Fold this protein.
Amino acid sequence: QVQLVQSGTEVKKPGASVKVSCKASGYTFTGYYMHWVRQAPGQGLEWMGWINPNSGGTSYAQKFQGRVTMTRDTSTSTAYLELSRLRSDDTAVYYCASIDNDSSIDFDYWGQGTLVSVSS
Amino acid sequence: DIQMTQSPSSLSASVGDTVTITCRASQGIRKDLGWYQQQPGKAPKRLIYGASTLQRGVPSRFSGSGAGTEFTLTISSLQPEDFATYYCLQQTGYPPWTFGQGTKVEIK
């Protein structure tokens, strides 16, 4: 069965960087884009960007341009999200989600979420 | 960027009621829209894709409709497990993707 397993809770200080991992299993990792979505406490869902695991190509929401880097390791079927220059308002649960970019395709799987807490 | 305006932001309903949630896109997105349900502390779960196709395993009391700029999610005969927050997500080929603001469905 398809599984996305994310790394554990991170506690960081403002200005630091964080790298969250998402290990995929049960499907062809390079066959579907990996998206990253975050949710601040008590707030809605925010799409951050995607990576094409096959080519390594990325697309980021403008809000995160210059601070976010999405990468992947095809040998371990793992995707990574790195966010730099952390601020307190980056405190959120970060989700990876493998979703077919063709909206007519039934492929949509999410990780369990990783809490990133930013505090001095 | 395409903006998604979701309404209402919250609603109260009783078990057995029919509820409707709407998402309006700032420009046409064909049928590139999904609907998600999120329970507290859990990852979102997709209910509908392609605006109107039911995800496998999702009860048939959930239905979606619309195309272009106006979309609706209807939950018929609301069940206790349906009290949750619902989001639309526009998935046009040209990024960024954007979520609606969410609708919290609460028990009356």
Notes: The mean pLDDT of chain A is 96. The interface with chain B takes residues 35, 37, 44-47, 49-50, 59-62, 95, 97, 99, 101, 103-106, 108, 110-113 of chain A (CB under 8 Å). The CA atoms of residues 32 and 102 of chain A lie 10 Å apart.
